[in-house]
Structure formats: C-alpha cells, structure tokens
Amino acid sequence: MKKIAVAPGDGIGPEVMDAALEVFEAAGVPLTYERVEMGLDVWKRGVNAGITDHAREVVESTGILFKGPMATPKGSGVKSINVTARKTWNTFANKRVFRTLPGVPRSRHAPEVDITLIRENIEDTYGAIEHMQTHDVAQCRRLITRPGSEQLVRYAFEVASRKGARRVTCGHKANIMKLTDGLFLDVFREVASEYPHLQADDRIVDALAMELVMKPDDFDVVVLPNLQGDILSDLCAGLVGGLAYAPSANIGEHICIFEAVHGTAPDIAGQDRANPTALLLSGCIMLRHLGLVPWADRIESVLPIALREAYRPRDLATPPWPFSTKRFTKLVVDLIQQEPPILRRPALQPLQVAPRSEARMMASPRQPEHEETVGVDLFIDSDRTPDEVAAIVQKACKGALQVKMISNRGTQVWPTGSVFTDCVNHHRVRVEADGAVEPKEIFQLAGRISGQLRVCSLEALLRIDGVPAYSLAQGQ
Ligand code: NAD
Predict the structure, then answer these.
(1) Which residues constitute the domain of residue 114?
(2) CA 396 to ligand 1 centroid distance, Å
(3) Comparing C-alpha atoms, which of 138, 208, 164 is closest to residue 456?
(4) Alpha carbons within 13 A on the beta-carbon side of 157
(5) Total of domains in the chain
(6) CATH code, domain with 116
(7) Residue 70 Cα, ligand 1 centroid: separation in angstroms?
(8) Ligand 1 atom 42, closest CA
(9) What is the pLDDT along the chain (476 residues), one digit of tens a residue?
C-alpha cells in the first residue's frame, strides 16, 4: 500500500486530522500513514523552520504530505511553517476548489458556484524578502519571474482542460505594477494562445473581487499571483459557506501537499466545534491525485447528506444543534458503512520521488538579444531636502551619469513636484546616462556618495532589447 506523510498541525489541526483519517479508515482507503512532526511546537523546541529532519525525510521519500493547519504568530520572528513547506518542496501552484455543497448555509449572494482558483505559491511578496531601509521605512521585495509564472499558468490551463472548463481568467494589477504584474499577464496571454479551445480573459484584481461576489457562476478557473490569490480565495470561501468548506492542494513536480485553506482556528480549538469538511475535501483531491477515485467519490457523495443532517433544525422553533466534530464524523462514518466496501483494486502508480542532489535552474525559454546597464536608483536614508540630496549626488557623478529624478514613496519630488507631497527619510535618486555605462561605475558612484549620505540600497537600471526595464515614478 502507498505510504503518505501526515502532519496533524496546531490548534484544531489534530481534531480535524483525526476525523479525516477515521473517515478514510471507514471507507477502506488503501493508504498507510506515517505521522510526522511539523508546527509551532516543533519550532518552540528549537527545531529550525518547525519541520523535523524525520518529517523532511518522510515527505521527500513519499512525495505526499497530508497536513493540518500550522500557526504563525503575527509580526514575530517565526516564519510561516506552511509557507516554508510549500516553498522548500517547490509546490508552485496552490489549487483551491470552491464548490457549493448542498446542506451548507452559505452567502445569500451566491448561486451555485464551481470555481477553481490557482494561486502562485512561491514568489510575490510571499518571498518575504524584507528589510528596514531606514529606521522608519520597511521594504518588501516582490519578485515575479517568467519561468515561475509560466509553470503556474500552464498548470492552470491544464486543470481547466481536465475540468472541462470553458473559461480561464487571469487576475492581476498590471495597470499599476506594470513590470511585475505586467510580466504575469504577458505570460498568461502567451500560454493562453496554446489553448485556443478555452476562453481566456483577464481582470484587474479589484474588479475581479466585485465580479466574483456579484456573478460567481460566470467563473470557472481563475489564476492569480500569490498575495492576490490568497485574498480572493478567502472571498470565494465566503461564497460557499466559509473556510470550513475550502480545500486545497499544493502542487509540485515531485512533492504535493494537501491541506485545508483555513488556519488553526485558535478560538475554537479543543472544543469539538471544528468542521473537518475542508480537510476531508482536500483529502479527496489527494485521493484523486493518487488514482484512488472510487474512495474519493464515496466520501464526497456522503458529505452533503451528513452536512444537511448536522445543520438540520431540531424543530421549527429551535435552531440546529451546535456543530460537533465528533457527531459529524460519526454521521459520515455511518453513511459510508451503509454501503458495501469498495473492492476495486486501485490503479495506483507507485509514486517514485526522484532523488535530488542539487536544485535545478529553471531556464527561461526567452533570452534577450541585448541587455545594458544605463544607470542606478540609489535609495538614500536622509532627512535633507530633495534639492540638497540632488546636489550632493550630482557632484559625485562622473562621465555620462546625471541625476534625473528623485522620488519619495514612489512619487516624484525633484526636479519638479508638489509641496503637498509629504516625504519620509528615504529618497530614491535616479541617476541615468543616455547610453550604456560600465556596471562597476554605479557601485563606484555609491561609494563616493557614502561619505556624505547613507546609501541603504541600490538597484541597477537595465535596458533590455532597447526597452527601459524599470518603472517611472508617479508624476514623472
Ligand atoms: P483561521 O482560518 O484559523 O480562522 C478564521 C475563522 O474561521 C475563525 O473564526 C475560526 O474559528 C473559523 N474556522 C476556521 N476553520 C474552521 C473550521 N474547520 N471549522 C469551523 N470554523 C473554522 O484564520 P486565522 O484566525 O486568521 O489564523 C489562525 C492561525 O492559523 C494563524 O496563526 C495563521 O497564521 C494560521 N493559518 C494557517 C494556515 C495553514 O496552515 N495553511 C492557513 C491560514 C492561517
């Protein structure tokens, strides 16, 4: 029998995982489970990243992790163990399925919904590459890559083809973030041209949020960058009755992680109130992924009946009993056991996870013909006025380099600007030449300035195939 790794997690994790495995047992799912330790308690014991070595070994050898939610304290130094797991094992796509379940009390706005949301899972602000640039300016680098976007978007179109979907919609903010979200949208359009049988369109993410609420039945498959996908997936969860009904799969080439969208629900942990449906549905996605389709069908077929019973009013005058994890699990188990056992032999391909000796370079199929450095954005920590900063930097410039512009929080404040633009102690000084410069010249310039001003960061300005590969400031 195929073995998988199981990590119950924190908060309500152990309760919902026990419920899911009890249902699997009743259905006779032909899997064996190796429990592994991951989560906040592991991190508190001093184990780096909250994942034990044993957990790593088991996940990497089985290729499948079935996991409960894991807690991440807000704002403290603990990195999210969930995000670490998704990124370490390169699960590049987060597939979240939002389907109306009969018997579930749901949003009054929502008709029948069947939306598959594919969220990028590795890049974007979730790289969490963050720095304090000055004592009161924090920065997060947002990286969107062509190979990463292409891998994700192709997966979204493949899912749509398998689902028999008619439409794939890309959500983005390319009107504002023209380079990062612009790249994501370009890749979407390129890949879409390879799937002419599917309708492909795009929406600016805020308009998409509104449309998902007003006409959710218009959408089939929606693909988004990481942060936007995270937010809109909770919106979709609201349409189908809440986080308790939102399953997900983190898909990688070698390792896949199946988990509910919800978190550890500390407000109800240990009270027998957690609804295990989302984890059970995630488990069913996992069973289908492993070729165990009859077992997934059996569990999914009884869930609506059990949910209807769980939420049935006691009588016309009194509300239903409060949700009980144990009562609900027993309902599901009893319904499953009313049917004869599934005897079909599973069409299981033993999953072999190819051992890796080193990380693979993800090559981009498109190499530029010509790439040149034409200047630098210097980020300077200073309380001086933009005029003073411009004068100091201009004096240090040599050759063709000239101070062209200073912006503050993205808005141009020099050579022109508005007195109504408030500034913080973090100036972006754009120094540009009309043609190419030697890359070392920009570091030498930073070195010359650093006697008088603190350079907290710098960003080379590139021209790729003759096109400036950097954004303009607001108002430039
Ligand atoms: P949450 O999903 O834990 O809870 C939000 C609300 O939904 C709460 O009122 C909770 O009681 C309810 N809820 C969630 N799941 C439920 C279920 N199965 N049955 C009934 N009610 C349920 O979100 P949060 O409170 O923002 O986060 C709590 C912790 O979980 C944080 O530490 C966060 O970092 C972590 N988290 C982990 C994951 C993950 O492991 N994949 C995902 C999200 C949040």
Answers:
(1) 107-239
(2) 53
(3) 138
(4) 20
(5) 3
(6) 3.40.718.10
(7) 9
(8) 263
(9) 899 999 999 999 999 999 999 999 999 999 999 999 999 989 888 887 899 999 999 999 999 999 999 998 776 667 788 888 998 899 999 999 999 887 777 666 667 899 999 999 999 998 888 899 998 899 999 999 999 999 999 999 999 999 899 999 999 999 999 999 999 999 999 999 999 999 999 999 999 999 999 999 999 999 999 999 999 999 999 999 888 899 999 999 999 999 999 999 999 999 999 999 999 999 999 999 999 999 999 999 999 899 888 877 666 677 667 889 999 999 999 999 998 777 666 555 555 566 677 777 887 777 889 999 999 999 999 999 999 999 999 999 999 999 999 999 999 999 999 988 989 999 999 999 999 999 999 999 999 999 999 999 999 999 999 999 999 887 78
Q: Name the closest-CA residue to atom 11, ligand 1.
A: 265
Q: Which atom of ligand 1 is the closest one to the Cα of 278?
A: 18
Q: Which stretch of DSSP H or E encloses residue 137? A: strand 137-143
- Residue 380 covered by a domain: yes
Q: Which distant-in-sequence residues (6+ apart) come within 8 Å of 296 by Cβ?
A: 284, 285, 287, 288
Q: How far is the CA of 363 from the centre of ligand 1 (A)?
A: 37
Decide if 99 is inside a domain. Answer: no
pTM to 2 decimal places: 0.90
Q: Is residue 97 part of a domain?
A: no
Biggest alpha carbon distance in the chain?
85
Atom of ligand 1 nearest to the CA of 277: 18
Segment holding 133, helix H or strand E: strand 124-134
Three-state SS for 130? strand
Rounded to whole angstroms, the Cα distance separating 248 from 228 reads 16
Distance 51 CA to ligand 1 centre (A): 20
262 and 358 in a single domain? The answer is yes
Query: How far, in Å, CA of 279 to CA of 275, rounded?
Result: 9
Ligand 1 proximal residues by C-beta, below 6 Å: 12, 16, 69-72, 82, 243-244, 259, 262-268, 274-275, 278
